[in-house]
User: What shape does this take?
Amino acid sequence: MTPPARPRAAVVGSMNTDLVVRCVHLPRPGETVLGEDVVRLPGGKGANQAAALARLGLDTSMVACVGDDELGRWLGGSLEALGVDTSLVQRSVRLTGTAFITVDEAGENEIVVAPGANADLRLDAVDLEGFDVVLAQMEVSAEVIDELARRTSSLVLNVAPARAVAAATLSRCAVVIANELEAKSLALDGLAHCVVTRGARGAVHYSFGDVVAEAAPPVVEVVDTVGAGDVFCAAYAARFALNDDPVRALRFAVTAGALATTALGAQGSLPTTKEVDTWLERAS
Assistant: This one.
């Protein structure tokens, strides 16, 4: 018997190199402080979400733009190692996007992001047909987001980092995902499906302003919350591709997001579908 085809997902978004340095305290204006060795990690909300989708078992393609440099090749290799198809990743004369992250001993951080090649992403030659879900975030140009909303009916848009989005664009999205702060700028009563994440309190699914589902995450030993939101978005998109109802999709996503906090780094702990299902079975 031929096994059923895996759902196909396209992630349209950023690919960045995260350069992280820890120090005793964050520098004040004009101050120089000594830090520990620089740690280089794969990042970018798009790459994080693509990695999470692949780990959840979806046939995942990354649509992004990196520089024709060593960092771009390294980022592509890190996604390929997780099973992500990078054949749709474009190249730019600009340098690959880079995030410069300083973290003090209390865990506070300062981040400067140089988008670089991410700003050059174009969709002219990208065929979006055949994907069961298209997941995007706001670390690419507004033109790319608007075009996605026009060209596909399966767009799950994570409106992070917060930026103004045309109401017409939002209304074309299959699902909009926002955190509580980002949701304050949205007209929920005008969105067919909007999922609002609430950190440790879980998430709520609204349909034209009415609550249709709520879910709380499991209790886990939290190590690092970086990237948990990206895993949530990927997990929700995965269940959307499988036509899950809002209640099941939300429970799956909050559980996946919680499990993502149990290791360091944005791509440090990427749960599988089996792992999420195991936690859900324990809770039932």
